[in-house]
Design brief:
This protein is mainly beta. It has one helix spanning 101-105, and strands spanning 3-7, 10-13, 18-25, 33-39, 46-51, 58-60, 68-73, 78-83, 92-99, 111-112, 116-121.
Length: 122
């Protein structure tokens, strides 16, 4: 059974940093891409970043380029999202998801975690 459990969310001041973690179980992370999405109240869900299984290729939404970094530790079956220089527009529930890379880039992965809340105070 595929499970994804996010952690690391919290409250931080604008300009601060947080590192989100996504612990995967029930499958081997080596063979799948994994990504982060977010959804703020009243807004549509948007893709934030994803990383491929094969060559570590990464994708970032324009809104987070240069501030967020995705990485994976296959030995720990865990993916991280380092978020720096957080802005007032970044608060949302952040979800990790897994599937093939193309599905993640298309915003339609099949497996989702339950999310972790990030809030940013100005």
């Amino acid at each position: 059974q595929v499970q994804l459990v996010e952690s690391g969310g919290g409250s931080v001041q604008a300009g601060g940093s947080l590192r989100l973690s996504c612990a995967a179980s029930g499958f081997t992370l080596d063979y799948y891409a994994i990504g982060w999405f977010r959804q703020a109240p009243g807004k549509e869900r948007e893709g934030v970043s994803c990383i491929s299984s094969s060559d570590g290729s990464t994708y970032y939404a324009d809104s987070v380029k240069g501030r967020f970094t995705i990485s994976r530790d296959n030995a720990k079956n865990t993916v991280y999202l380092q978020m720096n220089s957080l802005k007032p527009e970044d608060p949302a529930v952040y979800y990790c998801a897994t599937d093939y890379f193309e599905s993640l880039v298309a915003g339609a992965p099949n497996y989702w975690g339950k999310g972790t809340l990030v809030t940013v105070s100005s």
